[in-house]
Structures are given as structure tokens and as C-alpha cells.
Amino acid sequence: MNEAVIARVTPLEAWDLISREPRAILLDVRSKLEFEYVGHAPNAVLVMWKDYPDWRENPHFVDEVRAALARHGGDALDRPILAMCRSGARSYAAAAALARAGYTRLYNVEQGFEGDKDGAGHRSTVGGWRFHGLPWVQS
Hints:
Layout: E1 7-9, H1 11-20, E2 25-28, H2 32-38, E3 45-46, E4 50-51, E5 56-57, H3 61-71, E6 81-84, H4 89-100, E7 106-109
Parallel strand pairs: 1-7, 2-3, 2-6, 6-7
Antiparallel strand pairs: 4-5
């Protein structure tokens, strides 16, 4: 499998897919700090692709995803996995790693949780999960 088979979905399309497909899982690949303090979608599963402060790729990412999927209903290679990060870049790289590991139903949530920055440098004002009014929680 190559990166070209990763479907790109908007946050609204992701929510629709999660709502219709009971096996779908929303995989949040941000840092634990982002997940807890910026917020996250309810029932999202956190497996960090990169972590603060050095932002190095997690060398155990695929194994940690396998373990997380096993804890959340099974790790079948054809299970729908929707990867999400802050704005859509890290999640695409994470989905590509899963594609190389043999996962076949991968989606990248474009715009991510917070979306791109607006003209004033603020996020969540022009796109993203929160901008679209989808459910989210914060610690």
C-alpha cells in the first residue's frame, strides 16, 4: 500500500463516517499535552506520532496503534482509522506509516482539530474539528 490510498476527509465527513461505521476509530496523533489541554474529540484514541519538546517521530508508533486498537475493539488491518492532528500534516504522515504496515482503510482528517491559523495567527477560526462545532472535551 502506498500513501496515495489515504483518503482525505473534512472534519464533518469524519464525524459522519464515525457516526455510521461502528468499527471506525478516531486516532489522535498529537502530543499528550495538546490532547489534554487544547482538547480532543470524545472517544478519540491518543497515540502520539511526535512528542514535545523535540518533536521526533515515535519509533513505536505502529506497535502502539496495534495495541490501542486491540484495546478498543480489535486491530484488523481493514478497520477504518481516521487520523487527526492539529492541522492535518502530522496525521497524514502517521497514516502513511500505518499504510506501510498494511492497514487498508485509512483517512486523514484535513484541517485537523484546530485548523490553520487565521490572519491574526489564531487557530480554530477558519477550519478544524472545533471550528465546525463537532463534539470535543478538554481537561
